[in-house]
Design goal:
globular; NAD(P)-bd_dom_sf; alpha/beta; signal; 11-stranded mixed sheet; Rossmann fold; about 450 residues; Gfo/Idh/MocA family oxidoreductase; 17 strands; about 20% strand; 6-stranded parallel sheet; Gfo/Idh/MocA-like_OxRdtase_C; nucleotide binding
Length: about 450
């Protein structure tokens, strides 16, 4: 179908806003699939950007995998990781020389600068110091979210980035997912008129909640960061990004209601492996989740020999937090969280983060004066009040040259691709999530947590 026919079939109201950026593939009468065009600012690279990964856990591995898939763009030449198993695995994957393998991030900076950039994917409470040191030594930085555990540290990193002139790309990967990119583009092009209000929902999914925020690394907000930042600064950022107006006030409510000792079933034990009488019927059974169903086992550092996996998993469940009863952890993260935000020009937004769902993927509703949008990351439905027509758009991240294995709707690797180009050209304009662009949503998160604890509407001051 050529451009003229596509425009005719979509209709005047939405057509002009949709056609000028990419080709659409018709799926049915009112449904089209789309991909995003390559950034016109991209330039051919004479050599790959070199990076040192500080923190070779889940997120460090995701970004490192980009280098394995696209070695002509990115090369990992160093790693700092205290976990011996992960250090060795990461080093082997990227063929990192012995002298560039470190067990402490501080060791990286004891040497003169030896790479173009660093990837900081350490635990939340370990972002600040390595980032500040990297910037001082002249490295560009790909910084996993959240930026840092406190507002002051976030602002300090922003100041240091401006002082040194280095690039700090915050891993707000949803900004790079084709689904959200299209959503923002349509709003900017007036597809639904002036935005009046936004409703955004993050269903964490009950087993993800138990894994990461009850048993996992983020179970204690005092040791890491509050869940509104650890999990949902993505969402505050996306709301801010698509509305594209300054935030003014925020109010939040939520608590830890279910994963508490008083809710432990009769017959349950400290660990799922201790002879718990209700383990087989418990929806949060660690044995069912990790051993029987082999879900999220990457955290258990399993050996390459799969014949040993069953034995190793059970041993890990007996010795780590991942085998503990979800009702008997030292967790304090809320399992439901609701925020209301007022932006400039009387635009309002509500955001709900919920643990108790059987499904994941964000849901968003955007209400405009001339139309509305409803989406779940699989499809975006746009209705034009002026024409009465409905259009369904299906993002196809898998069509973006090998990025189908990237998470967050394709955003993980698409972020890295932009970061590589930005570093290569020394042009932060290739990124949408530089620290100066990303910091406001973090301030929103800090103020939301303050509001939740103090039961008070909080002003957002930038």
């Amino acid at each position: 179908m050529n451009r003229r026919n596509i425009l005719k079939s979509i209709g005047l109201g939405l057509g002009a806003a949709l056609i000028n950026t990419e080709a659409l593939a018709k799926i049915s009468d009112n449904t089209y699939a789309y991909t995003l065009p390559e950034n016109p600012l991209y330039k051919p690279m004479e050599k790959p950007v070199t990076v040192i990964t500080i923190g070779a856990g889940s997120r460090g591995t995701v970004y490192g995998n980009f280098a394995s898939k696209f070695p002509e763009q990115l090369k990992v030449i160093g790693v700092a990781e205290p976990n011996t198993f992960r250090n060795e695995k990461y080093s082997q994957q990227h063929d990192i020389s012995t002298e560039n393998r470190f067990t402490d991030w501080k060791q990286v900076f004891e040497r003169p600068k030896f790479a173009d950039a660093v990837i900081i994917s350490t635990p939340d409470d370990m972002h600040y110091e390595p980032c500040m040191k990297a910037l001082a030594m002249g490295y560009d930085v790909l910084l996993e979210k959240p930026i840092a555990p406190t507002e002051k540290e976030c602002r300090d990193i922003l100041k240091m980035a401006k002082k040194t002139g280095r690039i700090v790309a915050v891993c707000h990967v949803l900004r790079y997912a084709p689904y959200f990119v299209k959503m923002k583009e349509l709003i900017e092009q007036g597809a639904i008129g002036e935005v009046i209000s936004v409703q955004h929902f993050e269903p964490i999914e009950h087993l993800h909640m138990a894994h990461s925020y009850v048993r996992g690394n983020w179970h204690n907000s005092k040791q890491t960061t509050p869940i509104i930042l650890a999990k949902s600064c993505h969402d505050l950022d996306i709301i801010k990004w698509v509305i594209n107006k300054p935030s003014k006030r925020i109010a939040a409510m939520g608590d830890l209601k279910w994963f508490r000792k008083e809710n432990a079933p009769e017959g349950s034990t400290t660990r799922c492996t201790d002879g718990c009488k209700v383990e087989r019927e418990c929806p949060y059974s660690a044995i069912k989740h990790y051993h029987d169903n082999r879900k999220r086992t990457f955290v258990l550092d399993l050996p390459a020999d799969k014949s040993k996996h069953s034995e190793v998993i059970m041993e890990r469940l007996k010795t780590t937090n991942y085998g503990r009863c979800v009702y008997r952890m030292e967790n304090d993260q809320p399992d439901h969280y609701v925020t209301t935000i007022q932006f400039d020009d009387s635009v309002t937004a509500s955001f709900s983060m919920e643990a108790f769902t059987s499904y994941a993927r964000r849901r968003t509703r955007i209400m405009g004066a001339m139309g509305d949008m409803v989406g779940d990351m699989n499809e975006l439905v746009v209705t034009d009040f002026r024409t009465g027509k409905e259009l369904k758009l299906v993002p196809r991240a898998e069509d973006v040259d090998g990025y189908k294995n990237s998470g967050h709707g394709g955003g993980d690797w698409l972020l890295v691709r932009d970061f590589v180009q930005a570093v290569s050209q020394q042009n932060p304009a290739l990124l949408t999530s530089t620290i100066d662009e990303s910091i406001e949503s973090h301030i929103m998160g800090f103020m939301a947590e303050e509001s939740r604890k103090r039961n008070k509407m909080m002003e957002i001051r930038m």
